Amino acid sequence: VARGADGHGLAALRCSSCHGNANFEPGRIPGHPEWHLAPREMGWEGKSLAEICAQIKDPARNGGRKVEELIHHIGEDTLVGWAWQPGFGRSPAPGTQKQAGALVEAWAKSGAACPAR
């Protein structure tokens, strides 16, 4: 399996070849109507909290969103919400999506500060 140039798989094996509209429990295949990998520029692996914070705030690296738009994206977007309902054999993100949205809203309203390092 490979991401492909557009993040939706290679021409011969698109994400939708395996990933359907919902999680497929017998095969442990995650699913969502809009299933796709996050763009490479959104990756967090190996980054510090300060780097992740700066990335989240940067529209060039967060899907073109202003900080205020992240409230809806994190708090209500159903593909993001998959993290709290990942299916059999996977651990959900902590808390709830609604709580995550509320935390992002409080962070945005308080100036969206990032850690120094």
Protein described:
This protein is mainly alpha-helical. It folds into two domains: 1-37, no CATH class; 42-110, no CATH class. It is built from four helices and two strands; from the N terminus they run ββαααα. It has helices at 49-57, 67-76, 78-81, 97-109; strands at residues 9-10, 13-14. Strands 1-2 form a two-stranded antiparallel sheet. It is globular and about 45 Å long.
Name the features.
31% helix; globular; 117 residues
Mean of the pLDDT scores? 93
What's the number of domains? Answer: 2
Choose one word for the global shape. globular
Report the sheet with the most strands, covering strand number, pairing sense and barrel closure. Answer: 2 strands, antiparallel
Short description:
The chain is mostly helical and 117 residues long.
Draw up the topology in text:
Elements: E1 9-10, E2 13-14, H1 49-57, H2 67-76, H3 78-81, H4 97-109
Antiparallel strand pairs: 1-2
Helix pairs in contact: 2-4
